[in-house]
Amino acid sequence: MLKGMTWDHPRGYTGLEAASARYEKEHGISISWDRRSLQAFADASISKLADDYDLIVLDHPHVGQIADSACLHALPFPDDADQCSLGGSLESYVWREKLWAYPVDAACQMAVKRPDLCRVVLPDWEATLNAGPKDYRLVTALLPVDSCCMFMTLAAGQGEEDLPYSEDAFASKDCGTLALKVLKALYRLGPSEAVSWNPIKVLEAMAATDEFAYSPCLFGYINYARPGFKPNRLEYTDLPSFRGSSVKRGILGGAGIGVSAKTTELDRAVDFARWITSEAVQSGIYLENEGQPAHLQTWRKKGSDPDYAGFLSGGLHTMENAWTRPRDVWFLGFIDDLCEVFPDFFIKDLDESAFLETINKLYRHHRARGEEQ
Fold it and tell me: What is the pLDDT of residues 275-290, one digit of tens each?
């Protein structure tokens, strides 16, 4: 019997559990799954989880620490990598020329709307600076970790996706300041309580009430585009861009499935990881049971299916152009500390230039610590 750890949302566990039941029937290997919260999915130590689980569903910014600790087994590269990897999904789990997980779930930041309510979407990011709350009926997930991610996406949308910008600055003065101005405008345009909302909270509010029509940037969840999941279906589309540019570069998200270095069932665990990330499984039982597929061919084959088109078709271009966050060992500590101070930027209406310097100071501190390790 194998033990796995995933995360606590139907997208994170329903498809895995259904596929695991099928796998047991076909291969005679039982797999049980425990769940952790979305916050723990981002924060929990993979090294500690590897003490107790054979299979771990994980977030790719952890791969630098995974490589340093050698808590997971390096996996064989797929023979058909060019046919299975969606955008940078596979590459995001590569560190020091080794593959630490197979992509099982693909996501990035994209825009989402209620097609029955949304009449106008943002023509560009600058439109937020002079908009009123009733102009777009928008809501933005501004929980600290989402604010951090959106700050990076707004910098990338100005052509600065190769973050950090330099050894002294995480983002340049011009790009960083404009990104923060747009974030502040989005805070003012939505409900103030959205400073504590994650994408799930925003999607729930959009799908279950008529209060909001549009969210310009959040990590997409396929479930909300499917019939019957919630009272109202949502539809995904491209992010806005900045004036004079067509660049739409959302942060890559999703999840990979890795194998503990301490497992006593290495061959069986690797076989299951390969099986559940295969096109046949991703396009079949995994997708049919709330799973969000990572296989490129699944997105292409199922993009015209009315049950999934609102996500797979609307989000494909965005996914193919998503960019990958830093995965160096200093990055997660930097994000943790940035999350501590980000709420004050909105609630206390801090100056954008001064707050950018706070971001850059935190970056310099954590980069120096990472170089010492």
Answer: 999 999 999 999 999 9
CA neighbours closer than 13 Å in the CB half-sphere of residue 222: 30
Q: Evaluate whether 68 touches 273 at the Cβ level (below 8 Å).
A: no
H/E segment holding residue 13:
helix 10-27
In this structure, are residues 303 and 312 in contact, taking their beta carbons and an 8 Å threshold?
Answer: yes
- Omega before 293 cis (within 30°)? no
Domains located in the chain, CATH noted: 2-106+253-311 (3.40.190.10), 109-251+328-373 (3.40.190.10)
Among residues 232, 252, 204, 205, which one has the least CA distance to residue 87?
252
pTM: 0.91
Yes or no: say if 339 and 271 are a contact pair by the CB < 8 Å rule: no
pLDDT for 373 equals 63
How much of the chain is helix, strand and coil, in % rounded to 5?
50, 15, 35
Pair 167, 366: CB distance under 8 Å? no
The strand ranges marked E within the chain are: 2-7, 31-36, 55-58, 94-95, 98-99, 102-105, 109-113, 214-219, 235-237, 255-259
Q: Which amino acid is at 120?
A: V
